[in-house]
Amino acid sequence: MERSLPQLPAVVVFDVGGVLSAPEGGVPEVAAALGVPADVLAPAYWRHRDGYDRGDDARTYWSAVLTDLGLPLDRIEDVDAVDARRWGAPTPAAGGLLAAVCASGTRTGILSNAPHSLAGVVRAAAWSRPLEHLVFSCDLGVAKPEPASYAAVEEAFGVPGEQVVFLDDRPVNVEAARARGWRAHVWTGAEAAWATLTAEADRA
Predict the structure, then answer these.
(1) How far apart are CA 18 and CA 114, in angstroms?
(2) Residues 81 and 101 in one domain
(3) What's the distance, Cα to Cα, between the start and end of the chain in Å?
(4) What is the pLDDT of residues 62-105, one digit of tens each?
């Protein structure tokens, strides 16, 4: 995405899953690794995910998932690694957008509901190095749309909510951000996000 962007208001914050990475996340690849259909894995995968995102360890989460599926518990480390790598890989379009925003000089960061394994992948990735703050639910013990999630970002950047532009794929998370005064928008793709950020720059 070879574009120039005017300086945005203070801070732009991105979600990871469904925004920077593909919305289906790790489900298809984990299902393939386990030898089960994705639509069989998905209910168990999501049923236990909230606690995992809030900091539960990988064995607790995957043991619950695999037990629901009637599968042995001997591949937890493997499937956890597959899952984290998939969630932590930006799509080309989103990666281009993120690079363009970072190149503009805007302060950038992440606010993501994510387990420790995914947080580790993101922190180790080259694409996250230009980002100023990476805020993950697993470190906070709370998850979006809880107000404490957004407060942690404001504290990290040292700015009020009115100076934060936020992109998330879940309307409930966007509404909670707007309730704090954030300039929050539902992610519908990189092209639409570029138009949104350009409009926000024009407002500055």
Answers:
(1) 12
(2) no
(3) 22
(4) 999 999 999 999 999 999 999 999 999 999 999 999 999 998 88
